Amino acid sequence: RDFDGASRVVVALDALGIGVALRDFGSAVSSLEQLRTLPAGTLTIAGPLVTALQGADDEVSAALLGAIVKYARSLGRVVVANGVENGVQAERLRELGCEFASGTAFGPSLPAAQVRDFLRAL
Hints:
By secondary structure, this protein is an alpha/beta fold. 49% of the residues lie in helices and 12% in strands. The protein is globular, with a radius of gyration of 16 Å.
């Protein structure tokens, strides 16, 4: 609710070397104005927007995701797509200019204690 206060906190954290991400952009409460004015270095795109790729509104979803990625990158933000479930979605996101993604398409969710072993096995 206190957008100016939140911006000051993000700037202070950045000065300390702590990065902040706008999480789940595209969900009910996010706005393009917040993306433009809040000095967070990373934007994560909400999973439901990614899931819509390959659905009935595939082209509409691709256009929306492409616009979000292009806008965020023009502001110097790193963009991460959440909820990527398969290689087709990953490829579409890459084509739209999204360089980072997370989701089951890349591997299972793991407890922190198992991540090192998983990475060694790659």
